[in-house]
Every structure is written in C-alpha cells, then in structure tokens.
Amino acid sequence: xxxxxxxxxxxxxxxxxxxxxxxxxxxxxxxxxxxxxxxxxxxxxxxxxxxxxxxxxxxxxxxxxxxxxxxxxxxxxxxxxxxxxxxxxxxxxxxxxxxxxxxxxxxxxxxxxxxxxxxxxxxxxxxxxxxxxxxxxxxxxxxxxxxxxxxxxxxxxxxxxxxxxxxxxxxxxxxxxxxxxxxxxxxxxxxxxxxxxxxxxxxxxxxxxxxxxxxxxxxxxxxxxxxxxxxxxxxxxxxxxxxxxxxxxxxxxxxxxxxxxxxxxxxxxxxxxxxxxxxxxxxxxxxxxxxxxxxxxxxxxxxxxxxxxxxxxxxxxxxxxxxxxxxxxxxxxxxxxxxxxxxxxxxxxxxxxxxxxxxxxxxxxxxxxxxxxxxxxxxxxxxxxxxxxxxxxxxxxxxxxxxxxxxxxxxxxxx
Length: 415
Hints:
Elements: E1 2-8, H1 10-13, H2 20-31, E2 35-42, H3 46-57, E3 62-66, H4 77-85, E4 89-91, H5 93-105, E5 119-121, E6 125-127, E7 136-140, E8 145-149, H6 153-171, E9 177-185, H7 190-196, H8 198-202, E10 208-214, E11 217-226, H9 229-247, E12 251-254, H10 260-270, E13 275-279, H11 285-290, E14 304-305, H12 309-316, H13 320-326, H14 331-345, E15 349-355, E16 369-376, E17 379-387, H15 392-414
Parallel strand pairs: 1-2, 1-3, 3-8, 13-14, 13-15
Antiparallel strand pairs: 4-5, 6-7, 7-8, 9-11, 9-12, 10-11, 15-16, 16-17
Helix pairs in contact: 2-6, 3-4, 10-15
C-alpha cells in the first residue's frame, strides 16, 4: 500500500511549529509494511487542500491528514474531506458524551463551536481521542482510504498507536513488514562513506541502504522487507557484515538514540574504569556531555575547566614557565594537562582539550586547531592534532566527539 501524509496548518508553513508528526507516522507506517511516498504541508485553505487531495488520489492508496480537527473556523480538514468524498459530517455520540463531561468537570460553559470536534465522516470509523477532544476517523473509499488525525502530537501519537494502527492492521493486512537497523559512524564524512559503499548502494534492492549526515557523525539505515523477523535479521546481518568489512573502522554503535557518549560511558562501566578531563577551549562541554548520561557518577568523579594560563597553573599545577615556552595551543600543553588531571583525580583515563575555537587566531595558530590529550593510568599519553572547521560552537562539539572517540578506541584496543 502506498501512502502519503498531508499536514494541515498555516503555522507549519510559517515555521511556528515543527512538523514532527510526519516523522513519527512515517516510521510507524513503515514498521507495518506501508511505504510513505510523499509528505506535504498545506495551510488552512480549503481550495488548496482540495487541490492536494485530488493530486493525492492519483498517486496514493492511503492518505493520512494531520491537523485541522479543532473547534475554530480555520479547522477545515474534516469539512473539505467530507465534500471531497461526497458524504456528510455526523456527530459522534461517544465523543459528545466525553465533550459534555469535560466541560462539566471544569464547571464551565461549552461554546457551540466545540461540537465541530466530535463530528466524523458518515460511514467512517471513529477514532476516539484519549488525550483530547477532537475525534479522528478512518474513511474507506472505493479507491482511496483516508485517516484523519489531530495535529497536536500529544493527541496524534496515542490515537495512532491505540486506535489507527490496530484498525489498519485489521482492515489492510499485509504479509510483508519493513525491519530497519541503524549503524552509527564517527570519523568519516557522509561523502566518503557513500564513496566506500558506492557499489552496495548502487545495486541495493532488499535490504536498502540510506545514509544520514548528523553533526560530526553519519548514520546508515539498512531496511529489509520480509514476511518474518528471522528472514529480516538474516538480510540485515549480511548487509551489515559487508558494510563493516569496508568501513568498520569508523563504526561505533547502533540505533537512533545510542550516542557516542552513551557508548563510551558504557565501555567505562564494563571495564570498571574512571575518567576525568581538563578543558580549555571546550570550557566544560565534555564534562557536561558526560553528565547527560544517567549513572555517569560511577565512572566520572569530576574534572577541571582551565580556560586561562593562570588556571592551568593553579588548578593543574603546570609550571607557568613551561606554558610560556611551549604555548597553550600545543601538543606539549595538551600532554601536560591530561597527565596532571590524571594524577590529581586518580582516574584511569584523563582527557585534555586545548586549542583555538575562534573566531580569531591564537599564538599564531588558525581557528579550529585543537590538541586533545589522553593520559592513561596504565599506558602512554596520546595527543592528537586536529583541524576542525565551521563556527566556534561546531569546533567545540567536534573536539568533544573526537575526545570521546579517542577513549572508545583506546578501551577497545586494550580488550
């Protein structure tokens, strides 16, 4: 079944609201084996919505409309769709009961326009709204099928998961399902990754491979279409093995949410190891990133933010004369900072960050020049020289990600 999603609301076109509903619905429909071919946003304009419905009828079998089910005059979605398919709107009695109870509980008077929220298409299947008042519906036409969902995500998501999805599975059963696996990579750009996998991507069929660039990392979504989970995992395993044979050096984890910092904290916990940091240009961003992970106190006792030469000397005990000689933007400074932090915090690892976030040069070094040191309790100190690009914020974020990857690689190499 081919599907498309139409989001209705002028606020979406003006950028006042982000259309997160389309992302959610596409993912959930794909899980059911329903492929979404088009996303469209249209304002609260009946003529343009009707034109869009006419177009959608020519290319999609399932049309999902989000928004425009409320009580105001610009909530026109139901009215336009009812005219489009040639059926009247009728009041839903269960919705009317819930609406009356809502206002009674609040001891307030219901205005007549609220009755618009409990209207559904005649002969449609109502979709109750557990978290709001606007009733959704599924309308099955001769050639096309339509789902009406409310706009607020707090209403749309439970309505789809609890009402629409089970109904779709019952009314339009499919033997094939889409199963996806997300691979995450750091240290390789999207263009380089795609080049390395060009032959696989060019000849892809089942599973498919889709790269997505994110700040300082790239993800690959591999998707298999099969009738059962065993077959899907077999196809995904085969594709993953081929991918990692080519770019496995840069692979660090799975999933949409399993970030690099989560992987590193997990490795530290698994190895009963601790970490600290001494930060200059990142000004505590690395330690703040660690702090986003629940339970990080098991591996992170604390650290140092030493932005100036004076604090590098007073907090870390580095000889000011040495800093004057080697400069703060240097391999030597990064090494001294990491080793001093390791000794003071008595941890297994210590990272240091020193460099030029910009916008100006420092000590004759260009913006984006960053030295990152990694001292180890049982091992030598590693220092990398990096040349990051873009703005100040991106350079700092790039530094943090590079530091995390240094820790990840070092732990894995020891195991």
